[in-house]
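Batch job 17 of 40 flagged for manual review because the log was empty.
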Amino acid sequence: MEWIGVERRRLGTGLFVFGLVGMVLAAIIATGLIAGGVAARNLDDRIAVDQARLVDALGRTSASIDKLAAATQNASATLHTTGAMVAQADTVIQELAGLSDELSSNLNFSILGQQPLAGAASKFQAFGQRLRDVEGTITTLQGNVETNADDMGALVGQIHQIGDLVSELGDRVQSFDRAAEIVRLIVGGIILGGLLVLWLAIGAALCAWAGWRLRKAAAEAPGQAQDSGPA
């Protein structure tokens, strides 16, 4: 026999298989929803605890950044002071080099064709030359110290900017108070999903039951084998 143009046994088999597949899928989705519900349990409390820990960590990070900025500022000031001292040392060395040249000239005198202090004059002249060599090195050192001091001064501003960003992030994390609302939405979605799965499971069960009934009715109908042949 046929029903709506389809042999009843085949139609019953199709409905039965469709219903079974639907119930299996519903069971899998229900398992996922149950797992999600278990995971969402006390989620707002856990979020609050993690939020407090994050705020504390950001606060300690901000304090460390402030200390780093202060240390960098002190280092920059120390380098500027060192640069000034190096400049003073350079001035003193210039004066010593000039004094050494003057002594060399004054000691390089002749008495009756003799230069009794020629050795000392030569030593003072060599000493003046060594002082000028040191002066060149000190001048280079002064330039490097001043450059580093300026770089560290600029770095202080960047460190303060990072500290401000961390502080702002900490304030935003601390002011976040929608965890409970998010958890309620998640729980509501799980409940709605559960109702939908229940509705699908009922529909699948009805399809499976209807398919089983059609197969049973087809098997009990007289002359089924002659009318339709093997399923």
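Reviewer: the log was empty due to a logging misconfiguration, but the result itself is present. The longest strand covers residues 2-3. Unflagging and moving on to job 18.
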